[in-house]
Inverse folding.
C-alpha cells in the first residue's frame, strides 16, 4: 500500500485540546492541508501506539503537543516514554502553547524536535505543507530547533492572526468547542501569560463570524454555548471601557441563533472566561441577566492589598472588587472571585488584607476561587519566588474552604510553583 506523505498525531488531552482543535481547523481551511490525516489521541497510554501506527502508513509523522507551564514537567516525562517506545526519527515531536513559546530552549532541551513560537494557525499550515512536500521542517516560519551544538535556532514568531480569518475549531473533524471571541489582552497583569503570548492588544472576532460558528455548533446539536475571552465584557471594545452595545449585540445575536432549542444554554462571563471587577456595573449585570443562563459570574480580584494590586499591574483596587461583588449579588448572580495567595513581595499586612477581603466576600455570599502564585515563564514575574503559604495562612484558607466559601487548586499550585522555580533555565 502506498504511504501518505504525512500524518498528524495529536496529544489530544484535556489541557491542550482546545488549542489543537484550532490548529486542525486551520488545516481544514485549505484543500491541500485539509486532506492530511489527523489522529486525535485522548488517552496517554495510546499515544505511542498511535505514533507507531501512523509511521506504518506515512513517510513522516508530526506529533503535536500543546500544554501550559504547570504541565510542562509531566509532558516531558510522557514525551520521553513515547520516544523510548517509538525511537523513529520520522516521528517529529512539535511542542506549542504558551509554555513552549516562553521557554523554547528549555523545551527543546527536554526532547521536542521543534517548538512553535507564538500563534500557531499559519505555522501549522506551513508545517503540514513542508511535511507534504518533504522539505526541511526546521525552515518553517514560527518554529525553533536546536543546532548540532545545542544552540537555539529560531525562524521567528508565528503570524499574529486576525481571528475572522481562521475557524475557532475543527468542524470537518467533528471537533467543536468554545468560540474564542478575543485574543490578546490590554491589561498586561504581571503574573499572566496571556498578554505576553498573544500581545497586549485586543483582537476580537467580528459578530457575523461569531454567529456563523454558533450556527455550526447548533447544527451539530450543541447544548452549551461558551466563549473564550481574556475579559468577557471587553468584547468589541478597543480599550479599557466596555462597549455594552457590542456585548448586547453579541448576546442577542447568539440567543437568536440558538432559538428556543430545548436544553440549549448560553454562558458568558463565566468558565472558561471571566470579567474584570471594574466592568461589573448594574447595566452590565442586567445585560447578563437578560440573555445568559449562568447563575454565577467569575470576577478577577487577585488581592485585597492595594499595594500588591498596583505592583502586579491589575489596574484596579480592592474597593473595586468589593463593589463588584455587591453589584453582582444585587443582580442575582453569584460572584466567584479569583484570588492569588503568595504573590511576590507581600508583607504580613498585605497577606492579612487579602485573607480579610476573601473572608468578608465569602460572608456576603461570594465564592472565592483560590490560587497560589506560580512564577510563569514569559511573564514579568517569571523569576519571582514561588508562592508559599505559611501554616497560619493555610489554616485560614482551609477554614474558608471547609465552610464552602472557597474552592480551587491552591494546594496543588503551591507544589507546581516550586517545581516551576526549580526548572528555571540557568542564566
Ligand atoms: S489576568 Fe486577565 S486582565 Fe490580566 S492580563 Fe491576564 S487575561 Fe488580561
Amino acid at each position: 500500500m502506498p504511504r501518505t506523505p504525512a500524518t498528524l498525531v495529536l496529544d489530544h488531552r484535556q489541557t491542550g485540546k482546545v488549542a489543537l482543535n484550532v490548529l486542525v481547523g486551520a488545516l481544514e481551511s485549505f484543500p491541500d492541508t485539509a486532506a492530511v490525516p489527523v489522529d486525535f489521541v485522548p488517552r496517554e497510554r495510546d499515544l505511542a501506539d498511535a505514533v507507531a501506527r501512523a509511521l506504518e502508513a506515512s513517510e513522516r509523522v508530526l506529533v503535536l503537543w500543546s500544554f501550559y507551564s504547570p504541565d510542562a514537567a509531566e509532558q516531558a516525562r510522557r514525551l520521553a516514554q513515547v520516544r523510548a517506545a517509538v525511537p523513529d526519527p520520522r516521528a517529529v515531536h512539535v511542542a506549542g502553547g504558551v509554555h513552549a513559546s516562553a521557554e523554547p530552549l528549555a523545551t527543546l532541551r527536554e526532547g521536542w524536535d521543534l517548538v512553535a513560537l507564538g500563534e500557531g494557525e499559519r505555522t501549522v499550515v506551513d508545517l503540514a505543507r513542508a511535511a507534504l512536500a518533504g522539505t526541511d521542517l526546521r525552515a518553517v516560519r514560527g518554529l525553533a530547533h536546536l543546532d548540532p551544538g545545542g544552540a537555539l535556532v529560531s525562524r521567528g514568531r508565528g503570524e499574529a492572526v486576525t481571528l475572522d480569518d481562521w475557524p475557532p475549531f475543527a468542524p470537518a473533524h467533528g471537533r467543536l468547542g468554545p468560540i474564542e471571541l478575543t485574543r490578546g489582552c490590554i491589561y498586561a497583569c504581571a503574573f499572566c501569560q496571556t498578554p505576553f503570548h498573544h500581545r497586549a492588544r485586543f483582537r476580537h472576532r467580528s459578530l457575523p463570524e461569531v454567529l456563523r460558528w454558533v450556527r455550526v455548533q447548533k447544527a451539530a446539536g450543541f447544548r452549551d454555548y461558551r466563549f473564550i475571552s481574556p475579559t468577557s465584557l471587553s468584547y468589541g471594545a478597543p480599550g479599557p471601557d466596555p462597549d455594552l452595545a457590542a456585548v448586547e449585540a453579541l448576546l442577542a445575536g447568539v440567543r437568536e441563533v440558538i432559538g428556543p432549542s430545548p436544553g440549549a444554554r448560553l454562558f458568558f462571563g463565566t468558565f472558561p472566561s471571566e470579567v474584570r471587577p471594574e466592568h461589573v456595573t448594574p447595566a452590565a449585570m442586567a445585560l447578563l441577566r437578560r440573555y445568559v443562563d449562568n447563575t454565577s459570574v467569575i470576577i478577577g480580584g487577585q488581592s485585597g492589598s492595594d499595594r500588591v494590586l498596583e505592583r502586579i499591574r491589575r489596574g484596579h483596587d480592592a474597593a473595586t472588587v468589593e463593589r463588584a461583588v455587591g453589584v453582582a449579588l444585587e443582580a442575582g448572580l453569584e460572584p466567584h472571585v479569583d484570588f492569588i495567595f503568595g504573590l511576590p513581595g507581600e508583607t504580613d499586612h498585605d497577606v492579612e488584607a487579602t485573607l480579610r477581603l476573601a473572608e468578608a466576600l465569602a460572608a456576603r455570599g461570594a465564592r472565592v476561587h483560590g490560587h497560589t502564585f506560580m512564577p510563569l515563564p514569559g511573564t514579568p514575574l517569571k523569576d519571582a519566588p514561588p508562592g508559599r503559604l505559611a501554616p497560619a495562612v493555610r489554616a485560614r484558607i482551609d477554614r474558608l474552604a471547609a465552610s464552602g466559601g472557597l474552592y480551587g487548586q491552591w494546594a496543588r499550585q503551591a507544589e507546581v510553583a516550586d517545581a516551576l522555580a526549580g526548572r528555571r533555565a540557568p542564566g
